[in-house]
Amino acid sequence: MTRTLAAFLAATTALPAFAEGELNLYSSRHYDTDERLYSDFEEATGITINRIEGNADELIARMEAEGEGSPADVLLTVDTTRLERAKDAGVLQAVESEALEERIPSNLQDADNEWFGFSKRARIVFYDEAEVETPPQTYLDLADPAYEGMICHRSSTNVYSQTLLSAIIEHHGEEAATEWAQGFVNNFARAPQGGDTDQLRGLVSGECDIAISNTYYFARALRKEVDGLGQAELEGIGHVFPSMTEGQGAHINLSGGGVAANAPNRDNAVAFLEYLASDQAQQYFANGNDEYPVVEGVALSESVQALGELSEDTVDLSAVAKNIEAANRIFAEVGWE
CATH code for 2-120+253-301? Predict the structure, then answer.
């Protein structure tokens, strides 16, 4: 099946039909714009996608409980942490695919080929330009006492918090990461709460002067108003792509997926993953949800382009995900709720 995917990878118009059957997709992505991804794949291949949607942890637990009888063919979810959790739970399988290996950068895929990243978001610094004359330029700067009482962030139970601290551990070691986390907590303007959009709202309301959020929440608000947050509300909010360490760029979160360990329609599952790495699908990730494509050369959406050039941390995210246990110990030690 995978040898027939050459047409997918070059496609920018209609995709040729080459298969029939079904694909059972377990997905925690909750974006209406993904509908185009699914419908185009179905039209091109004759493969019907049956979707089970829900919380990522619940879907992983369901796959574990279903065992060898699981109907799941593909798990699609957000963040390296959850992808690695699925791998550790034994609900994914290795995939040998030249298309995926060639299209997706090595640092954005599992070392054992059990999961692959298909879109990315940078986790960056946003700040009130009227209140912050010198915004943080690195993630380590966020622990500087100069920013005491100024920062809004999510709770330690959130995967974005866990992956950020795990990346700092990977770059700087546990001791330095613990010191950083304590300084960061000392600089909180309020108890950690809410989602990324709530961090941006904290800036708008004046509750905090600095917030950390994934880029696509801000870019989406630039493109259209969502829940009262739009261009007008974001006036006066600046942003910085902070560096993780010298020579490295901003921390990246992934949206990705893998083939289920007991996939009854394995060939269709591999075909679907390869489709997600095609230029056409990558363009949908960019334009439909204001994300960064993982495939080089795919154009960004106008709203993402408005954020400026991205310099990203190229650390192996598979290695970062293995630091989650250490990150959770540090959260408890420093009192990051």
Answer: 3.40.190.10
